[in-house]
Design goal:
flat
């Protein structure tokens, strides 16, 4: 009672705030910080899930540096990032920009774009896998055959497999990005557009000088969110190449799939943890770099 009487109102507010935050902070530390720290520690150890952990020092990272498969997977992961992020950004913006001007059945069309985002990635991957099958099963190759075009080996070609897997991954995320872009477009005051039209400014100038600059916070959010998604791509690759996960010849294997394979097929948890630390570092650096490049100058 004596302590409560000696506290100022501000100190009481701070005390109450930390009182309410205690449980979420503890939960976040247990769920986030502890596993992260444990993974970093495990990356310097050897463990097969059954025996005792043994100290390995930097052996896992040295092995990673000399692993040709890792560098192939590392390249694949950045191909997913460098192709998927800009393509999804441009396509979703174009859809949102034109959809914002549609009035007839606007809600239904928007729902149809958002539906793939709500669909199970596993089910979606298997449907697209069916689309890619040879004649007479696959829809795409049946369409090509109708026009006399030779069929394409989508998922069993080292050249075509990665773009074939990337396409449904981009398509699946478009709905979310379209909704975010539309929210950003509708947050722009209409007075800017009215003033531009009165001055006789062209539509292209309005787009490049008003719309896109004012959408910068939205673009930053979608870019970072999309980049993290493509760097962590797993479901589509695993299910579309399930007979040879990440194949053919590791042509589609991303880093997350390599981590999964190392941990739960190879039972080399220390090596998998080292790969996880590398992925975490990549995610952190890419996100910080994007935020720095797109900051307000």
């Amino acid at each position: 009672m004596q302590l409560r009487n000696t506290l100022t109102i501000r100190q009481k507010h701070i005390l109450w705030a930390w009182g309410f935050l205690t449980l979420p902070v503890i939960f976040y530390v247990v769920i986030r910080f502890y596993p992260t720290g444990n993974a970093i520690l495990l990356s310097f150890q050897e463990w097969n899930l059954l025996g005792e952990r043994t100290w390995a020092g930097a052996d896992n990272y040295i092995k990673l540096w000399h692993d040709d498969v890792f560098w192939k997977v590392f390249k694949n992961t950045f191909v997913y990032l460098l192709l998927g992020t800009p393509l999804s950004l441009v396509i979703s913006f174009l859809i949102a920009f034109h959809l914002d001007r549609v009035r007839f059945m606007h809600g239904f069309i928007r729902m149809m774009y958002f539906l793939p985002f709500m669909t199970s990635a596993v089910a979606m991957a298997w449907v697209w896998r069916w689309f890619y099958q040879p004649v007479p099963v696959g829809i795409f190759n049946n369409i090509l055959a109708t026009f006399g075009i030779p069929q394409i080996n989508f998922l069993n070609s080292t050249t075509n497999a990665l773009p074939a897997v990337l396409a449904p991954a981009i398509w699946a995320g478009l709905g979310f990005q379209v909704i975010i872009f539309m929210a950003g477009l509708r947050a722009i005051p209409t007075s800017y557009y009215e003033a531009a039209r009165i001055d006789g400014v062209s539509g292209f100038t309005i787009l490049t000088q008003i719309t896109i600059p004012l959408l910068k916070p939205t673009i930053i959010f979608i870019t970072v969110f999309s980049s993290i998604g493509f760097l962590r791509i797993f479901d589509h690759v695993f299910n579309m190449t399930t007979n040879n996960p990440g194949g053919p010849l590791n042509a589609t294997k991303p880093l997350v799939l390599m981590i999964y394979d190392t941990a739960f097929n190879g039972f080399n948890m220390g090596y998998a943890a080292a790969q996880t630390v590398v992925l975490f570092t990549i995610l952190l650096c890419v996100s910080l770099l994007q935020l720095w490049l797109m900051r307000d100058r």
